[in-house]
């Protein structure tokens, strides 16, 4: 999952070297925290959050195959 988020995020941003994905396990789900360069936040979030929503949908769909619950947070 971490690799999937990293590849997708690096394809969207101007500063791919600043993309960092951390994994935190909470109760019954895994939370992935995506951190990007401050100037790339808008590109990852998209207009009205459409790109962020699509990213979350792809990751959630991939997690279903592994029978896991995941969420993606975008942090600065």
Automatic annotation (TrEMBL):
One GO BP: peptidoglycan biosynthetic process
Transmembrane regions listed in the UniProt entry: none
Keywords: Cell shape, Cell wall biogenesis/degradation, Chaperone, Cytoplasm, RNA-binding
A Pfam family of this chain: KH_KhpA-B
Gene Ontology MF: a single term: RNA binding
Domain of life, per lineage: Bacteria
Main subcellular location of this protein, as a coarse class: cytoplasm
CDD domains xrefs: KH-II_YlqC-like
A GO-annotated cellular component: cytoplasm
Compartment(s) of residence: Cytoplasm
Coiled-coil residues: none
Family according to the record: Belongs to the KhpA RNA-binding protein family.
Name by which UniProt lists this protein: RNA-binding protein KhpA
Organism in which the protein naturally occurs: Paenibacillus ginsengarvi
Gene that encodes the chain: khpA
